[in-house]
Amino acid sequence: MDKRILIVDDEAHIRLLMEQTLEELEDEGVALLTAANGEEALAIIQTESPHLVFLDVMMPKMNGFEVCQAVKADDEIKNTYIIMLTAKGQEFDFQKGREVGADLYMTKPFNPDEIVERSLDVLQLD
């Protein structure tokens, strides 16, 4: 089964930057999916079962915390690895991310090499 990464951000340029950052993984058979809001993200997670989700916090319709909480509460998809990727870097935000079940919390601006490295680790690719 091919591995899938879902990139969720309401800002198109961030989604594009993430896709460009991760495009080398497509050579390894990784499919890159995108969503522009929380509702769309949850629907894609439920239907496509991505292995890894980069999830923005501040989004319309459902914020990232709400999406993460919904995913982690659903037995069918709770093992989805979720990395919260956000400009909000206060300790309160990290704590909230942990409370809703995020596997990792990274702040923007992100280091592209770290994004690729984390993706390789989670997907168990070398």
Can you tell me the CATH topology?
Answer: Rossmann fold
Number of domains: 1
Report mean pLDDT, rounded to a whole number. Answer: 93
How much is the radius of gyration in Å? 13 Å
Number of helices: 5
Shape label: globular
Widest beta sheet: strand line-up: 2-1-3-4-5
Low-pLDDT runs: none
From N to C, what is the helix and strand string?
Answer: EHEHEHEHEH
Description:
This protein is of the alpha/beta class and 126 residues long. It has a single domain, classed as Rossmann fold (3-Layer(aba) Sandwich). It has five helices and five strands. The chain has helices at residues 12-22, 38-48, 64-72, 91-99, 112-123, and strands at 3-8, 30-35, 52-55, 81-86, 104-107. It has a five-stranded parallel β-sheet with strand order 2-1-3-4-5, sandwiched between helices. Strand 1, helix 1 and strand 2 form a beta-alpha-beta unit. Helix 2 packs parallel to helix 3 (64-72). It starts with a strand and ends with a helix.
Compact description:
With 126 residues, this protein is an alpha/beta fold.
Which descriptors would you attach to this protein?
126 residues, Rossmann fold, 5 helices, 5 strands, 21% strand
Q: What does the secondary structure layout of this molecule look like, with pairings?
A:
Elements: E1 3-8, H1 12-22, E2 30-35, H2 38-48, E3 52-55, H3 64-72, E4 81-86, H4 91-99, E5 104-107, H5 112-123
Parallel strand pairs: 1-2, 1-3, 3-4, 4-5
Helix pairs in contact: 2-3
